[in-house]
């Protein structure tokens, strides 16, 4: 199991789950769900090392620093703290 803390709300999630599959229920606006529209931009406050590598889609949309696309992120374990 991994831990996702979304705007202060702590959630236990399966490893390798896409964040989009969790955050949609938590109220993050999701559009295309495949890295094109950019509506799911999130800020990773802690635990970037517990996410998959930046995808080509994220690079194309200019994600850098602690910015990621929720639909392109997978938790690989540990704890990730996200704000949106
Ligand atoms: S939902 Fe469109 S880029 Fe993530």
Uncertain segments are none
Quaternary organisation of the protein chains: single chain
Biggest pleated sheet: 5 strands, mixed
Number of strands: 5
Radius of gyration: 11 Å
Total helices: the number is 2
Corresponding CATH superfamily: Beta-grasp domain
Helix content: 10-25%
CATH architecture: Roll
CATH class: Alpha Beta
How do the strands line up in the largest sheet?
2-1-5-3-4
Give a verbal description of the structure.
The protein is of the alpha+beta class and 84 residues long. The chain has one domain: Ubiquitin-like (UB roll) (Roll), CATH 3.10.20. Helices cover 15% and strands 29% of the residues. The protein is built from two helices and five strands; from the N terminus they run E-E-H-E-H-E-E. Strands 2-1-5-3-4 form a five-stranded mixed sheet, covered by helices on one side. The longest helix is centred in the N-terminal third of the chain and has 8 residues. The protein is globular and about 30 Å long. The protein starts with a strand and ends with a strand. The mean pLDDT is 92. It binds FE2/S2 (inorganic) cluster (FES). FE2/S2 (inorganic) cluster binds next to loops.
């Amino acid at each position: 199991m991994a831990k996702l803390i979304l705007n202060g709300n702590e959630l236990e999630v399966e490893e390798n789950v896409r964040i989009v599959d969790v955050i949609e229920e938590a109220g993050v606006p999701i559009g295309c769900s495949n890295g094109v529209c950019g509506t799911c931009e999130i800020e990773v406050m802690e635990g970037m090392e517990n996410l998959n590598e930046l995808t080509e889609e994220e690079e194309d949309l200019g994600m850098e620093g602690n910015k990621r696309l929720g639909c392109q992120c997978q938790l690989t374990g540990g704890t990730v703290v996200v704000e949106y």
